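Priority: medium. Attachment 1 of 2:
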């Protein structure tokens, strides 16, 4: 485990921004982009790198697990306390982005069709 937590680069921040503009929750976008870079990370590292609070990371993980985008494993800790959970994406960033782009393009086509029908119905076309 690498404990040097790198913050997101400008390019990665831009990817986060664009993902959230397409409708993906911003915190989820941050987690996905960070995990795509880190490979695998514990909650605390994700919090630091993505600049999120623990509850925000937990909520993002809940959705990501439901969608099947991440898997978790427990790391045994020395001594007492709850084991640490380690997270990893189940697919790469390209696959995730590709799926989101496809969904948005279909949404746009449907909206364009609806707008065209609306214009015809009110006599604009």
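Attachment 2 of 2:
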């Amino acid at each position: 485990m690498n404990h040097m937590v790198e913050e997101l680069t400008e390019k990665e921040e831009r990817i986060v921004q664009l993902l959230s503009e397409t409708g993906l929750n911003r915190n989820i976008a941050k987690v996905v982009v960070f995990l795509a870079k880190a490979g695998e990370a514990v909650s605390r590292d994700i919090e630091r790198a993505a600049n999120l609070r623990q509850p925000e990371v937990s909520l993002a993980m809940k959705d990501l697990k439901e969608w099947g985008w991440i898997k978790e494993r427990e790391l045994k800790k020395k001594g007492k306390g709850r084991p640490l959970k380690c997270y990893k994406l189940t697919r790469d960033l390209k696959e995730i982005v590709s799926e989101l782009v496809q969904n948005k393009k279909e949404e746009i086509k449907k909206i364009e069709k609806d707008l065209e029908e609306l214009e015809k119905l009110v006599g604009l076309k």
